[in-house]
Amino acid sequence: MKNNDVEQVDKEQLIPNQEIENKKSDFDNNTSQNPNETHQQEDTEKKEEKRFLSNKKFKKFDKARYREQKCREWEIKIVNQNMKDDKLGLYIHIPFCDRKCDYCDFVSYSMDENAQHDFQQALFKEIDMYRTQCEKMVFNSIYIGGGTPSVMYEGFIYELARKVYSTFHFEGDIEFTIEVNPNSVTYDKLLEYLRAGVNRVSVGVQCIDSKILKNVGRFQTIENIDNTFDLLKKMGFINTSADVMIGLPNQSLDAVKDTINYLIDKNVKHISVYTLQLEENTPLYKNVKMGKIKPLGDEACIKMYNTVTKMLKENGFIRYEVSNFAIPTYESRHNFKYWKDVDYLGLGVSAHSFLENYRFSNTCRLDEYIDMLNNGQFPIVNKEFIRDSERRTEYIMLSLRLATGLNLEKFRKRFKEDLLKTRAKQIHDLIKNGYLYIEDGFLKIAPQHFYVSNRIILELL
Ligand code: SF4
Questions:
Q1: How many A from CA of 175 to the centre of ligand 1?
Q2: Higher pLDDT, residue 272 or 439
């Protein structure tokens, strides 16, 4: 569809003004509701939509177009709302996994409980070292990622949460996310996460076909995944997210559709979709180089991505960032901080931070991390001051990944540069070829080209 199709629809006819206002205020109120209220809200919205669509007066307007309109309103609301958040995010990297997946180049080790205890002691020392430095900072999100946080011994997350709460200053509702893998989740661990204050669980589903996953050295079954979602439901975790991978060797379009349908059926509120990347020095990379495994081509991946986008949109999800889709109000608050220039503190092996114009990262080596902290040193191995020229580049890259695009006026004020002049030729060509468009002062990537957004963005840097 053309980008301005929605604009061609008369809003007055689409939905009466009062209804638009009602829905807007419903949406505003929704952000501070508890999960049960949010459920009722969803039911009411579905009923309203049904009533609206069955109204003979509006029958010449089709459902797809109505949804398109609602999606646009929500996308803008979601992004704008999160743009106002200026509190810090806290990221904690847990560097352990059951075993290493063949494609993975994240920092993770397969280790025993002793190593986990040594890591815990080092991590707690690191937290203590930031106590004074972060005294005046206010946080409102915690994200425990990895690695696989759910492989940690029972009691670890609870103790960690207590340590964090007693060290850093939090204000308002806290979004507290933990990543889990289906084969290491247990009832007791989820109970512990609840007691620790976790209110968002991100499940590493990737694909529900275990044969496809086995092919890339990831071992989990549909029973593991079913069990995880059953437990989450029974224990009242409503804000659930799932990671999905596309472009896996031997993965068909139908396999991708099955995974998405499965997650919709499980009432997952947020889905992140990533394309398999061939990282050097991984077993998968070697297997591909030796011709043992054939990767899927770009064309197949684009088709998968576009299919996922369509399916999710039809089921009420908003694509608020290139790889991230959410039912309205369930977008990830923590991840927004990375995309919008807000400070965050990263703790643990290989964690990255961005504080007061400095970007710094911890060592990727577990032994070095533990040694440095045992010697009273911060485990930081890289630190750089981020100049405005670099922030400009990041601003372009990150804002174009968001559905709302780049605010040209804000960019001009912030960086004293009129992008339409300094990148006139590139922007002109990209618009002419349908990759970019300008709407209400925002430079945006055309939705059908989101998958190749990185290539488009490179043209503008
Ligand atoms: S579970 Fe995740 S972090 Fe761990 S090895 Fe696999 S891809 Fe890497």
A1: 23
A2: 272
Q: Which of 74-78, 84-88, 128-132, 406-410 has the lowest mean pLDDT?
A: 74-78
The answer to whether the CB of 125 is under 6 A from ligand 1 is: no
Centre of ligand 1 to C-alpha 423, Å, is 40
Please say whether the structural domain 88-339 has been given the CATH code 3.20.20.70.
yes
First to last CA, the chain: 28
pLDDT above 70: residue 81: no
Sheet holding 169-180, edge to edge: 318-321, 324-326, 270-275, 240-246, 200-206, 169-180, 138-146, 88-94, 344-348, 352-355, 358-362, 380-385
Residue-range domain boundaries for the chain:
5-83, 88-339, 404-460
pLDDT for position 11 = 31
| pLDDT recorded at residue 448 | 86
Tell me the per-residue pLDDT of 188-212, one tens digit each, with 9 for 90 and over: 999 999 999 999 999 999 999 999 9
Residue 148 CB–ligand 1 contact under 6 Å: yes
Identify which of 298, 296, 278 has the alpha carbon closest to the alpha carbon of residue 286: 278
* Rounded alpha-carbon distances, angstroms, from residue 128 to 278, 370, 433: 38, 14, 54
* Sequence-ordered list of residues with C-beta below 8 angstroms from that of 192, at least 6 positions apart, any chain: 154, 155, 157, 158
DSSP 8-state symbol, 87: S
Per-residue pLDDT reduced to its tens digit, 31-72: 334 545 556 666 776 676 666 666 655 555 566 666 666 666
- DSSP H or E segment with residue 347: strand 344-348
* Residue from 258, 291, 263, 293 nearest 276 by CA: 293
Cα 346 to averaged position of ligand 1 atoms, centre (Å): 19
Residue 146 Cα: closest atom of ligand 1: 3
How far apart (Å, rounded) are the C-alpha atoms in residues 123 and 145? 14
Among 93, 105, 106, which is best to mutate for testing ligand 1, by the most ligand atoms less than 8 A from CB? 106
**250 alpha carbon to ligand 1 midpoint, in Å?**
20
Q: Is the CB of 100 under 6 A from ligand 1?
A: yes
Stretch 95-112: mean pLDDT: 88
Look up the pTM and report it.
Answer: 0.82
Q: Is 149 in the pocket of ligand 1 (CB under 6 A)?
A: no
